Each structure stands twice: as structure tokens, then as C-alpha cells.
Amino acid sequence: MANKKKEEPIILITNDDDITSKGIRSLVEAVKGLGKVVVVAPDKPQSGMGHAITIGSPLRMNKLNIFGDIEAWQTSGTPVDCVKLAVDKILHRKPTICLSGINHGANHSINVIYSGTMSAAMEASIEGIPSIGFSLLDYKADADFEASKHIVRTIVTEILQQKTPDKHLLLNVNIPAVPLKEIKGIKICKQAYAKYDEAFDERIDPQGKKYYWLTGEFKNFDKSTDTDVWALQRNYVSVVPVQFDLTNYTLKKQLEKSKLFK
Amino acid sequence: MANKKKEEPIILITNDDDITSKGIRSLVEAVKGLGKVVVVAPDKPQSGMGHAITIGSPLRMNKLNIFGDIEAWQTSGTPVDCVKLAVDKILHRKPTICLSGINHGANHSINVIYSGTMSAAMEASIEGIPSIGFSLLDYKADADFEASKHIVRTIVTEILQQKTPDKHLLLNVNIPAVPLKEIKGIKICKQAYAKYDEAFDERIDPQGKKYYWLTGEFKNFDKSTDTDVWALQRNYVSVVPVQFDLTNYTLKKQLEKSKLFK
Chain A interface, mutation test: which of B78, B87, B122, B188, most A Cβ atoms within 10 Å? Predict the structure, then answer.
């Protein structure tokens, strides 16, 4: 931004809970005045959509007037579609930063893989846009985002103050569901090694046919003290730097040495 | 498998193109005789679904009889749902290995992020199941999978011969669309740094309203000679070891040193 000192930052906001959720409204409020805010978000809940894109059917966009003087569009697509549409069809350029959330519910540890919130942020990162996903550890529709708004504003202000925000900056920020005075600080963390133990809930429909609801119990296998789960359990905000290079370099070296596939 | 010498391997097969595609049939044929094969795959195309899971609606499963004496189930879910259903409701245990594909079309470089094929394999890896996604660089419905079948059988045979297949083994295998005699070998690679330049195709529907089709041009920014794209361009099969820990450890170190968020 060294050459663009007088240019107002453009802040693209999206989410996965849908454009009418309290979380995205709180995110808009949190960054008000820090730049020109444009909202492009899904018209329906898209939680758990991961990095899905829409390739078999076309997309729709509609301009909404639900955030006062802030430009806002709802789309029929996934969170990742929203970022693509925003860059190509709405902004016609890359925004200064992309913010996703505030998600109703945790996106720590393995949740980063399933999360539409974080996939939208990752899509922006693939485009070379500094990007942050925010999640509050409270899935309720009327969750209290007051402390989250303060945390969001602190982090976004710091990033925007950097002379040249790293275009590969991609952060997964999770916020404990406690009042601001109980938050102990902000910790840089790694993604905890955890998973869900699935247990599908099997039911019988009125026609006598079986159907299945996905349920699961969260299991944290990671005992280290620099994980997001560790920090959140102690009322820290966790910040995990994320990347989209999925190469397992340790396994790559092992396989290169092994006789496999020679 | 040291303690289970006499136990037949259980091979779970899934895909994202749907259970009736030529690619999954070719995968089943490729591994015939290497173990007990069970197919659990989507009932409709799920390309580009990434790591999406179904949490807002229930799932259905139906047993099919389209692979001769091989047990096969179609589900109404995403590729990731298929793996979860297979482990919890069909196998009632972890399979020895999970194979996904053979995808009609490339899943090299950044495609790994969007790919339902690779997300299914990754879900199995999260569950602690050695897992491989296979893709042929030919998206046509009637693509020629003969060379691919040979490659698949070679790789799967080698993995199953290991005393204890690494439960974190997760491979993204891409196969060039050339006859077997033109394939130069199998190369262990890293994920190329590449992206799509989006250009939505804007159209007007019969009611006069706009709609948008996602299109994009593939751009490879990676000049290094150990990437999957590099290998495939030279008619090698590319094998990228993949991980689901998305932590950017380089950026983590930088942020820990910086004054950000202190």
C-alpha cells in the first residue's frame, strides 16, 4: 500500500451462515470506518460447504439494502462462489482485504477443512488477497458478538496499518464465547490434530424408508500447548496462519527415499 | 497388517462423478482380486464439491447391483458424506484402504482444494485410513481408462504389500491422458502453485434477469521442476503426498516474532 497511501482500503465481507445472520452484521459493524466495505454473501445457510464451487448450475446475484449505506449483494452460490463473483463481477478488482464471518460456531482444528467461512477466506488467499476468517464459539442465532467485534476491529486495524499486507496472509481466528474482560489475549497457534467420531442418527420416514442425520462427537488428540483448541480452552483468541499448499513435504521426502513406485 | 496376515484387505471405493461413471467402474476393475471391494458413491455428479458435508438435510442410501458380486451403495450425499456413511453405517469399521476416483479430469495443483475426489480421500485420511485419489487428465464421459487401470493396480498393490501402510498416507495421483507405452514413469511431486482466473459468463434468462456461469482459465505460476503440473506435462504420473494440517508454519514463526496482536 506504499504507493496507495491516500487510497481507501476496500474491505470485502462474506460468510457462510447467510447474509441475514447476526454474525455478518456484527462483522460489518466491527470494521465500520476502516475502509469501503462491500458485502457479498450467500442467500441461504452454507455451513459445512467446505471449498465447494457451483459448476453444474448458474448463479444469481441480487443487490440488497439491509446494511444502510453499505453496498451488499446476496448470491445463490457457496461462500467460495461469493468471493469469485465479488472479484470478477462486483468489485472488478481485488479488495485490499477479505473478511469472512463472524461465524456462529467454532472453526478451530479440523473444522477448517469443512468450514465455508474459512474456505471463502482461503479462496481470497488463492486470489492473492490478504484474508481472515472469524468465528465465535457460540452457534446460537442470537449469540453475543460484542467481544468479537472488539477483537475483529483490533486485528483488522493492525493488518491494515501494515505498509504492505502480505498477500499470502490467511488467518483462522476463533474467539471464545466469554465477555471481553475474560479474554486473556490473542495467541498465534497451530491447528490442533482432532476429528469427529461420526454416528449417523438413523430414522424411518412416514413411507417406512430409512434416512440418516450426520452427528458426531468432537475428539481432540493433540496434547501440545500451542494449538488453537488449547488456547481457546484457556480463554485466549486463537489465530492459526493457514495455507492452501496441501503438500505433505515430510511424506514427500520419505517416499522419494523409498523404493515405492520405482 | 503384521497381526492380520490372513485377513483380506477391505478396499473402500468412492468418487465424485457419481456411481454410474466409467471412472469408478474402471477403478473397481483395476483392483479386482486385491481384497474385498465395497463401493459407496454419490447418486449424482458432485464435482467441485470440495470438502462439503451435508448438515442441513438428511441422507439416503440405496444398495445397487451394478458391479456384479461387489457390494455397492449409492448415497444422496457428497463424496465426504459417502466416506463417513461407509465407515459408520456400511462397513462398521475402518477399511484397509480408501480409493477415490478415477476422476474424469485433472486434480493436480490447486484443483486438490475444489476436488470432491480428493476431499473424499482426505476425509478417509482424517479417519486414519490410508487413502489415494486417482484422476485421469481427460474429462470426457467415455475417456479411455486402460492405462489408468494399470497405474492404479501397480500403486495399490505396492501400498497393500507394505507391512503397515502409513495411516497418514494420503496421495493425489494424476495420470496423463496417453497410452500406457507413452507414460514415462511415476514421480513424487509437490502441488504446483497455480490458480484459475475467473471470468463469469453473464447471460440473460427468458424473464430478462441476469445469471452467471462460472468459467476460468488455468494459470500455472510455478516454474519449479518437482511439481505435479511439470511431471504431467512430460507424461509422468504425478503423486503428491497430501496433508490436512493446513497450518502455515512459516507464517506462524513470522507472526510470533512480529509485534502484531501483542
Answer: B188
Contact B12, B99 (CB under 8 A): yes
Residue-wise pLDDT tens digits, A130-159: 999 999 999 999 999 999 999 999 999 999
Give the C-alpha separation, A135 to A58, whole Å: 29
Q: At what angle do helices B22-30 and B146-161 cross, to 10 degrees?
A: 40
Any domain includes A218:
no
What residues make up the domain containing B100? 2-191+225-245
CATH number at B72 reads: 3.40.1210.10
Residue-wise pLDDT for A30-76, tens only, equals 999 999 999 999 999 998 889 999 988 999 999 999 999 999 999 99
Cβ of residue A112 closer than 8 Å to a chain B Cβ = yes
Position A122 confidence tier, pLDDT thresholds 50, 70, 90: very high
Chain A residues in contact with B163 by the CB 8 A cut-off are: none
pLDDT band (50, 70, 90) for residue A163: confident
ipTM confidence score: 0.93
Mean pLDDT for the stretch of residues A81-85: 96
A216 within some domain: no
Assigned domain for A200 exists: no
How far is A130 from chain B, CA to nearest CA, in Å? Answer: 13
Is A200 an 8 Å CB contact of chain B?
Answer: yes
Number of domains in chain A: 1
CA distances from A217 to A152, A177, A194, A196 (A): 29, 20, 11, 5
Kindly state whether residue B98 falls inside one of the protein's structural domains.
yes
In total, chain A counts a number of residues equal to 262
| pLDDT of amino acid A1 | 45
Nearest to A158 among B114, B188, B261 (CB): B261
The answer to whether the CB of A15 falls within 8 A of the CB of A82 is no
Chain A residue numbers touching B243 (CB-CB < 8 A): 246-248, 251
